[in-house]
């Protein structure tokens, strides 16, 4: 399978990298994080490489590596860099390429370039990663509305956290999105626990690529 699958989220820290690692493993895909903001901790590329046990040929280098752990537009400005959308063309891959955004759908890369503008340009389906905890209904529906208003196809929603059945159901019903599954909070998150929990909690048949 080739093509692109975008992983975005309702916010930063919701679990996009963890879900990306699970998807890359389950789909035999490759991974690309176009813009990494923050280099002092483990980067998203390093985390996916570790959690999915990827060889280098399945992980593409970032187009931009910024030191500042902040919104990409701010990190870039701080470092005297202007993010050029032409450099954000996805790399060639024989495999499905999972592309991870940063933060949420309307995070700026430059003024006035948003991640959503790149998603629309890439013309690829999006997996929206959302928390299950309180507040997620509003954040999820806002993200869905922002994607739909730009005609960006939504492949489905991936929940992360403890089960909150009513919130999950409400988001899928009002937002008219497919529920791909839920990854519970894992007290020890590693290759084994992640892929076992993902296999139990997700139905990739629902991912209509
Ligand atoms: N299911 C889970 N169980 C345990 N820890 C998790 C789980 N999902 C995410 N985490 C942890 O929560 C933190 C944030 O997750 P993650 O890095 O995937 O967020 P993100 O949405 O990719 O953030 P960013 O916007 O910075 O890319 C990480 O430390 C990650 O290991
Ligand atoms: C630095 C962080 N871990 C992410 N990579 C970037 C998150 C940007 C969020 C911007 C915002 O919505 O305020
Ligand atoms: Mg991430």
TrEMBL record:
Q: Does the keyword Transcription apply?
A: no
Q: In which pathway does it act?
A: Cofactor biosynthesis; biotin biosynthesis; biotin from 7,8-diaminononanoate: step 1/2
Q: Which residues form the active site?
A: 33
The record's CDD domains line, in alphabetical order, gives: DTBS
Q: Name any cofactors this protein relies on.
A: Mg(2+)
Output the InterPro entries linked to this UniProt entry: DTB_synth_BioD, P-loop_NTPase
Q: Which UniProt keywords apply?
A: ATP-binding, Biotin biosynthesis, Cytoplasm, Ligase, Magnesium, Metal-binding, Nucleotide-binding
Predominant location category:
cytoplasm
**Which EC number(s) does UniProt give?**
6.3.3.3
- Name its cellular compartments: Cytoplasm
How is this protein annotated for GO cellular component? Answer: cytosol
Instruction: Show the stretches that span the lipid bilayer.
Output: none
Q: Which GO terms describe its biological process?
A: biotin biosynthetic process
Q: Which reaction does it catalyse?
A: (7R,8S)-7,8-diammoniononanoate + CO2 + ATP = (4R,5S)-dethiobiotin + ADP + phosphate + 3 H(+); (7R,8S)-8-amino-7-(carboxyamino)nonanoate + ATP = (4R,5S)-dethiobiotin + ADP + phosphate + H(+)
Positions that bind Mg(2+): 17, 100
Q: Which domain of life is it from?
A: Bacteria
Q: Which GO molecular function, any one, fits this protein according to its record?
A: ATP binding
Q: Does the keyword Cytoplasm apply?
A: yes
Q: Where does ATP bind?
A: 13-18, 100-103, 184-186
What is said about its interaction partners and assembly? Homodimer.
Which family is this protein grouped under?
Belongs to the dethiobiotin synthetase family.
Function as written in the Swiss-Prot or TrEMBL entry: Catalyzes a mechanistically unusual reaction, the ATP-dependent insertion of CO2 between the N7 and N8 nitrogen atoms of 7,8-diaminopelargonic acid (DAPA, also called 7,8-diammoniononanoate) to form a ureido ring.
**Xref: HAMAP family:** BioD
Family matches, as NCBIfam families: bioD
Quote the protein name from its UniProt record: ATP-dependent dethiobiotin synthetase BioD
Q: Which organism is it from?
A: Stakelama tenebrarum
As recorded in Swiss-Prot or TrEMBL, the protein's gene is named bioD
């Amino acid at each position: 399978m080739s093509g692109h699958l975008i992983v975005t989220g309702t916010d930063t820290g919701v679990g996009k990298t963890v879900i990306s690692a699970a998807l890359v493993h389950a789909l035999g895909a490759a991974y690309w994080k176009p813009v990494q903001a923050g280099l002092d901790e483990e980067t998203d590329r390093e985390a996916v490489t570790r959690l999915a046990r990827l060889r280098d040929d399945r992980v593409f280098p970032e187009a931009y590596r910024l030191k500042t752990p902040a919104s990409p537009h701010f990190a870039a400005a701080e470092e005297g860099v202007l993010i050029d959308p032409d450099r954000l063309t996805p790399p060639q891959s024989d495999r499905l390429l999972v592309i991870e955004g940063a933060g949420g759908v309307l995070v700026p890369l430059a003024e006035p370039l948003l991640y959503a503008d790149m998603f629309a340009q890439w013309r690829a389906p999006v997996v929206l990663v959302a928390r299950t905890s309180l507040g997620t209904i509003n954040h999820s529906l806002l993200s869905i509305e922002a994607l739909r208003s730009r005609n960006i196809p939504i492949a489905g929603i991936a929940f992360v956290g403890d089960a909150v059945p009513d919130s999950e159901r409400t988001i899928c019903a009002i937002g008219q999105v497919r529920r791909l599954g839920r990854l519970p909070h894992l007290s020890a998150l590693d290759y084994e626990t992640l892929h076992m929990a993902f296999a139990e909690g997700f139905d990739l048949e629902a991912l209509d690529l």
